[in-house]
């Protein structure tokens, strides 16, 4: 891997502790991104260890250099079990980490269309080879579909008004840049909460463009089989939908969070959460890396 990450990893020391990284261990970083977490894991695991780091973004893979003990994997973490089977590590992995945040590189590159802070194409694809962009969704979805997207994935209170405005405005001129979307959305936004509400709107579109919730569901359902008994699953989330899903899964081994019990009333969950509350960044980390502000780390061990 190149020496300098282009993304400041959130909750780095806490993630290493959560995974209980040891020399010679077998680990998967399901979200390589800028490489900060992977680099730290590889340093501790050492040349005798194995680290497989997955990312669907070709930029992230291009920056990663395969070497002894480290294998970059270009793909989506929803295929976790396929990759583990291919490398012969299913059931033998000591720890799996997933940081579900967007890389700082994506936010800072206007051409990728992830941020409302600079004008650029309304894209938002993590995998640039994918066919559908955020502009496509904005251009094609009806009012009900757009309302659901902004309400469910962005928790935006004016979701229907925004959806109606988009449908009306796109007939006048295409909404195919981040600046144009901001222009339309600004009429529904509370000026005192402008940054937060724009972030909610952009988050909602990004989640849909990349199928993030569906990918997370699939990833979680495969993670248990990939881990060895005693192996650890550590996940960093950034919004309530992700965190709720991760919390439910770690508690019950099920996406719906329902705890199944055996004949003796004992939980049948294959996982045991370590700690009842998520780990969050302290004030010093938030000051050094403001984008870590909403990060929540949860960890569980396979029984």
What features would you describe in this structure?
It is built from 13 helices and 7 strands. With 303 residues, the protein is of the alpha/beta class. The chain folds into 2 domains: 184 residues, Vaccinia Virus protein VP39 (Rossmann fold); 79 residues, DNA polymerase, domain 1 (Orthogonal Bundle), CATH 1.10.150.170. It has a 7-stranded mixed sheet, sandwiched between helices. Helix 3 links the parallel strand 2 and strand 3. Helix 7 packs across helix 8, helix 7 crosses helix 10 and helix 11 packs parallel to helix 12. The protein is globular, with a radius of gyration of 20 Å.
Q: What share of residues is helical?
A: 40-55%
Quick one: CATH superfamily of the largest domain?
A: Vaccinia Virus protein VP39
For the sheet with most strands, the description reads: 7 strands, mixed
Strand order of the largest sheet: 3-2-1-4-5-7-6
Indicate the CATH class of the largest domain. Answer: Alpha Beta
How many domains would you count in the coordinates? Answer: 2
Tally the helices: what do you get?
A: 13
Distance between the termini: 33 Å
Total strand count, please?
7
* Oligomer type: single chain
Net shape: globular
Structure in a nutshell:
This protein is α/β, with parallel strands linked by helices and 303 residues long. The protein is built from 13 helices and 7 strands.
Primary descriptors:
303 residues; single chain; Rossmann fold; DNA polymerase, domain 1; 2 domains; 41% helix; alpha/beta
Task: Give the arrangement of secondary structure elements.
Layout: H1 12-19, E1 26-29, H2 36-45, E2 50-55, H3 58-63, E3 70-74, H4 80-87, E4 93-99, H5 104-108, H6 134-140, H7 143-153, H8 159-170, H9 178-185, H10 194-209, H11 212-226, E5 227-237, H12 240-252, E6 271-273, H13 283-288, E7 296-302
Parallel strand pairs: 1-2, 1-4, 2-3, 4-5
Antiparallel strand pairs: 5-7, 6-7
Helix pairs in contact: 7-8, 7-10, 11-12
